[in-house]
UniProtKB/TrEMBL annotation:
This is Orc1-like AAA ATPase domain-containing protein. Pfam families: AAA_16. Residues 9-145 form the Orc1-like AAA ATPase domain. InterPro entries: AAA_16 (IPR041664), Hybrid_Histidine_Kinase (IPR053159). It comes from Ditylum brightwellii.
Length: 723
């Protein structure tokens, strides 16, 4: 539970082995509980937190409420719906705004201690997000504490790689190894706990140390078993705790932690055991609302009968049965095996979960998971389904090999598609790729013949997720499958687009350009043959330039582009501008000119402003300074008119690094670059954000607006944001 005190905040979370595929579980739950605590801390605390976060994040606050629902209760309706941008850009935006949020929390209560347990089970994106936090030098008041089992982590483990990366970025790491406790400390623990003198408890300590070898978990469980068995008990006669060493020494106590707990669980009522086994299947913790979706006696009955459908009980009978099971489950809370934390239940220790899970016969475990997943999904309301999608799909994915009918496979593949889309919306691409790949594997080798639309969606999303993961070989393979199986050119467009982006990211610009030209040809936007007619390209370019002469408002009254083919063509042309700039500027002339021709015919969109900016840069390079200035100002006016944030950094960078840098006051130009940098960070376009930051520093150096010390500090800040 978060602790809000005078001058400090303690925020904690815990990773779960069985919820590894569910992205950011520990981090989201930790901060969500923190905002819950803020909501219950009075109007003044709520107002201070709300105002500080809104001031720091601006229009991007809505990005945070998508991840942390409890924050939405604090900021209310003040959040703007985030602009729709690409998945990779959305991930960059979230990381940037998340860091702004943590900086704000750290300023509100100093220091912030952020504790995460069981890092060995953290998902890849959580480890990345932790790295961005602890290496952000702008977060001055954060202490991060991570706990992990070092016998499960080596240099090849993702956590080992993360720790190495953090060290290479000059962040000090203090490692504290927690060993078994020595006999003297065991004696002090027993003496303090039972209010007995340390000389009196020395004999008991010898037995405890012998049976537990100083493992603190085993010590506590052994003492608990002594109390439960009446070998260590309170005496109303002597008004103190009493024990008999001979009886305790004869007491059998297994050294294996799981066996210790199995023995303890087996002493509980059968229905309590059953409820614990059910919860052990979903992980170390579970919301009560989710637990009630699968707290069902019929699961065990169905498993025994090998039936995958729920028994047709009346709703009233089902509710009564679940409420009865919940009472038995809460008996485990009373026994200390489960912790109740508000609306959430958590096993008091991972080994308790493992012990409960071990009581399920090995040949039945997969069926338990399948039944739990089906119950969760079928019993959830439409409003709840988005919240339980990961739990439901993860449980059902355990049983991929048991699905026999095509209908079952198709339904689970669709659920994996939905889970993958949800993970993509959370910018957790490693998890989303796993879901999409699972959907593909479920459908099998005849999927394109039997489930064409579903297969097309799964492969397209999988390619996009792996592009965001930087796994370009997987992108090529997925795109290759789509291009060989898709039934029409329009069904291939998305795969071509992501393939071009992947090739550009690998600096394979020639291949990207060739594919782009091929797609434009298929769309009916036939480029000049081999681009060999250079005079014709320049003639058309100059003809377009003459239209813009002496005007800066040519496009302002144009309609918004709606034609789907034109929008696709504009998207591809815009993506090809970068490789043509480095490879062949003659082709670049044709591209920007063709984008403007499409705008003349079909109307304008965000790519039209970028095309105008590119046209201005081309004129500048050809020596037409007046034309470049006019078209550059036209690009800025169209950008303002369209008010599309995601294109602003590109337009500002191209225009103000060209002709307008010579005609406008440097102070004004540097302010434009700084604004474009901020918008680029907020829209996740880090590359263009840093390009604008570079020119901001250059202009300030040339103009002398900042002293060298201040300039060096700004450079360090931008560098931290770039990594």
């Amino acid at each position: 539970t978060p602790l809000l005190g005078d001058g400090f905040t303690f925020i904690s979370g815990k990773f779960d082995q069985l919820q590894h595929a569910q992205p950011l579980t520990a981090i989201i739950s930790a901060f969500d509980r923190y905002f819950d605590e803020v909501s219950g801390s009075g109007a003044e605390c709520i107002d201070v937190t709300k105002n500080a976060i809104l001031e720091a994040t601006g229009d991007c606050c809505g990005v945070l409420t998508d991840f942390f629902p409890s924050l939405g209760q604090i900021v209310g309706s003040h959040c703007v719906i985030p602009a729709q941008i690409g998945p990779k850009e959305a991930q960059h935006r979230f990381e940037y705004v998340f860091r702004l949020m943590v900086r704000t929390i750290a300023k509100l209560s100093k220091p912030v201690v952020f504790f995460l347990d069981d890092l060995q089970w953290a998902d890849a994106y959580s480890l990345h997000l932790i790295t961005t936090l602890v290496t952000d030098k702008a977060i001055q008041n954060l202490t991060f504490i991570g706990c992990f089992r070092d016998d499960e982590v080596d240099n090849t483990h993702p956590l080992g790689s993360t720790l190495y990366e953090i060290r290479t970025r000059s962040v000090a790491i203090t490692k504290i190894k927690v060993n078994n406790i020595i006999k003297e400390d065991i004696n002090a623990l027993i003496s303090d706990t039972f209010h007995l003198s340390d000389s009196f408890t020395a004999s008991l300590t010898d037995i405890v140390h012998q049976k537990t070898n100083g493992n603190i978990f085993c010590i506590l469980q052994f003492l608990q078993s002594l109390c439960d068995g009446g070998l260590l008990q309170w005496s109303s006669v002597s008004n103190s705790w009493e024990f008999k060493n001979s009886s305790i020494e004869a007491e059998f106590f297994p050294h294996d932690k799981v066996r210790i707990l199995v023995r303890r669980i087996l002493h509980l009522p059968e229905k309590t055991q059953y409820a614990l086994k059910l919860m052990s299947c979903v992980g170390a913790s579970c919301l009560e609302s989710t637990l009630m979706l699968f707290l069902d006696e019929n699961i065990a009955i169905n498993v025994k009968k090998k039936e995958m459908t729920n028994i047709d009980d009346k709703p009233s009978q089902i509710r009564k049965q679940r409420n009865d099971l919940l009472l038995f489950f809460k008996f485990a809370v009373h026994e200390g095996l489960i912790k109740e934390e508000g609306a959430n239940y958590r096993f008091s220790h991972d080994h308790i979960q493992f012990a409960a899970y071990s009581l399920i016969p090995e040949d039945e475990k997969i069926l338990w998971h399948l039944q739990i997943g089906q119950n969760v999904w079928e019993n959830a309301s439409e409003r709840e389904k988005d919240k339980v999608i990961f739990i439901a799909v993860d449980q059902m994915n355990y049983a991929l090999g048991l699905l026999e009918s095509d209908g079952q496979k198709e339904n689970l593949a669709k659920l994996n598609l939905r889970a993958g889309e949800k993970a993509m919306s959370l910018s957790t691409f490693s998890s989303s790729a796993l879901y999409f790949d699972s959907g593909i594997q479920i459908l099998g080798k005849h999927q394109w013949e039997n489930n064409y639309e579903l297969s097309l969606h799964l492969h397209n999303y999988y390619a996009e997720a792996e592009y965001c993961n930087g796994n370009f070989s997987a992108v090529g393979q997925a795109a290759g499958v789509i291009l060989s199986k898709a039934e029409s050119p329009s069904h291939k467009v998305r795969a071509y687009f992501i393939l071009i982006k992947a090739l550009c990211a690998q600096n394979r610009l020639d291949e990207a350009l060739n594919i782009g030209i091929k797609v434009l040809t298929q769309l009916g936007k036939q480029p000049p043959s081999e681009f060999s007619d250079v005079p014709a390209i320049y003639a058309n370019f100059n003809k377009t330039a003459s239209i813009f002469k002496d005007t800066t408002d040519f496009f302002l009254n144009f309609k918004i582009m709606e034609d789907s083919d034109a929008l696709i063509a504009m998207n591809f042309l815009g993506e090809l501008l970068l490789p043509t700039y480095f490879l062949n500027q003659d082709i670049g002339l044709w591209l920007v000119d063709h984008m403007l021709q499409l705008s003349f015919v079909h109307g304008v969109n965000k790519d039209s402003a970028c095309a105008l900016a590119g046209f201005s840069a081309m004129l500048f390079g050809l020596g037409d300074l007046d034309g470049s200035k006019n078209v550059g100002r036209m690009a800025l006016r169209l950008q303002d008119e369209l008010d599309t944030q995601e294109s602003l950094p590109r337009v500002c960078f191209i225009v103000y690094s060209g002709m307008l840098s010579r005609t406008e006051p440097l102070k004004e130009v540097s302010e434009k670059f700084l604004h474009a940098y901020k918008v680029g960070m907020q829209t996740g376009d880090i590359q263009l954000a840093m390009s604008n930051a570079y020119w901001y520093l250059v202009d300030n150096f040339i103009s002398g607006q900042l002293h060298l010390a201040a300039l060096k500090k700004r450079l360090e800040v931008f560098g931290e944001q770039m990594v």
